[in-house]
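Review form for a predicted model. The reviewer records the input and the model, then writes brief findings.
Reviewer: anonymous (R2)
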Amino acid sequence: MNTHAFIQDRPLDLFWFLPTAGDGRYLGSDVGNRAPDNAYLREIAVAADRLGYRGVLLPTGQFCEDSWITAASIAPFTEQLKFLVAIRPGVATPAHYARQAAALDRLTNGRLLLNVVVGGNPRELAGDGIHLAHDERYEQADEFLTVWRALMAGEEVDFEGRHLNAKGGRTLFPPVQTPHPPLYFGGSSDAAIDVAADHVEMYLTWGEPPAAVAEKIARVRAAAAERGRRLRFGIRLHLIVRETEREAWAEADRLISHLSDETIANAQTALRDNSDSVGQARMAALHGGRRDALEVSPNLWAGIGLVRQGAGTALVGDPATVAARIREYQALGIDTVIASGYPHLEESYRVAELLFPELGLTVGHYGRESRVPAGLQTAIGQRSGLGAARAT
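Model under review:
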């Protein structure tokens, strides 16, 4: 099989990220904090839309601005951009989320995607009223999605489960996308994979080495096949792309230059003690909290995971090298990359200018030459001097 031809026949969807907990140039530092105010988030989304990113991911959690309100406030300023918004089972009823999803899908004219986030921090979840053990949360998610999908399809729902119930549930105003906006989902445990196989359209993995990603895709694909279903696959990665390898690795070093050994140790302890997530444990195992063991696979750097929960790896290198690494994931079955870079506004331009042409992607409204106009790179450089922010 000609792998290169296979990849070319399956264009990559490249998403960007809205940093609704704050942004900056240094991890684990309050130096020059760039707050997640709505105007700044809108600026990132408009840039992503103009540059040709497929969509943006909006995270959820105690330290984030609400993803639904943020998406609804920003979407009218964009044209093509899709909004991948978090939906957390257990925080609200399936009927409530069904009405919200249908309304936001209509508001965006079918540009809503939904990221099902069960959550891996029991302390944070308790603050939202969820007091369930790990596997029980996935049981609840299974019930939630069973009801939610039926409601979105226009059915009247009577349901009695262990965690949820509904009698005569219905929605009167349908979404634009039928039967519902596509569901994205990530989770590395057996319980999570069962939920993915039963309910979602897109399975997401964090940026692990290719062999680990291949093993995970095989597990999910087999579970879905047992149910007569096929899923698509995506990966969540940070990107540090520069014109040369030396510049890219220097940028990676700069990103963690304000981290002390004590800060790293405290962050790793907090991540370990406050999480029962299998995926989070896999992220932590990549680097073990060590600064001298961060390149965990060629060009895959785990420095972000020293202090950041969730997606903790970045592809680092020049455009051709990073594109080659992404194609390795594509060859495994990945067709979507949800990317980010610090700070997110400037890096959205840099990634579009340097990496899009290597991936065969066109830079959106700048025409078919796939290049940012001359002079814009100067503006990017000026932007990068605006100061640092607390990265999340």
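Findings: The two ends are 41 Å apart (CA to CA).
Further findings: Confidence is low (pLDDT under 50) at residues 1-8, 366-392.
Recommendation: see findings above.
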